[in-house]
Amino acid sequence: MGKLEGKIALITGGSDGIGLATAQRFVAEGAEHIFITGRRNVSNMADLDRLYSLIQKEKGRLDILFANAAIFETAPIHLVTEKHFDDTFNINVKGILFTVQKALPIFTDGGSIILNASVGSIKAYPNESVYSASKAAVRSFARCWRVDLKERHIRVNAVSPGAIDTLALRNAGNTEEEQKAYLDACAAATTMNRLGTPDEIAKAVVFLASDDSSYITGIELFVDGGMGQI
C-alpha cells in the first residue's frame, strides 16, 4: 500500500521538472487521482476558478496541494524592470496565494499543503534579488497559513530546493558558455559538488504530503545539498 493511497492531489507547474517528477512519485505512492496544471494560469483568477470547479465536479474534494508553479528570472538591481518584478511576483507569490485560497472550499480537513520555496529564501545570490524576495514570501506563507488553518488541522509546509537540474536552471545565462559556468558554480556551491535532481525534491514532497510527516507543520525543509546550510 502506497503512502498516498486513495488521495486526490493537485500539482501546479506539473508539466516538467520538479512538478512532473512529483506527479510520478505520487502515482507510485498510490494517489487515486492527480490534477496537473501549467505554470502560467496560476495568477489568472478565472483559470483557477475553472480548475477548482472541475476538481469539485470530478472528485468532490482535494487532499493534497503542491503549489509548485514558479518562474526563475534574474536581473541585477540596476536592470530590474517593472515587468520583471510583476512577472515574478504574479506567479511566485500571487499565484501561490490564490491557488491555496481558492482550494480551501473543497480541501479536506487534515489535508496537506506543500509550497515550493527555495534556498534563495535565506541566501543571497547575484542578480536574484526579486526571485529571492518572492521565495521569502512563500516561506512566510507556510508559517502564517498554518496558523490560519489550524482549526481545520491542515498542515502547511514549504520545501526549499537548492540548485536542481531542471530546464529553468539550464536556461540561465545568455550563451552556452554562461550557462555552463552558472551550472558549474551552482554545483560547486553545494557540499556534494553536484546539482540535485527533480526526483530528490519529489521524494521530500511525498514525505510532507503523507502521514510520515503527521507532526510536522509550518516548516521549511531544505533539499539543497547543503547549499544554504554550511
Automatic annotation (TrEMBL):
CDD domains: SDR_c (cd05233). It holds the Pfam family adh_short_C2. Keywords: Oxidoreductase. This is Uncharacterized protein. Belongs to the short-chain dehydrogenases/reductases (SDR) family. One of its GO terms (molecular function) is oxidoreductase activity. Signal peptide: none annotated. Gene3D superfamilies: NAD(P)-binding Rossmann-like Domain.
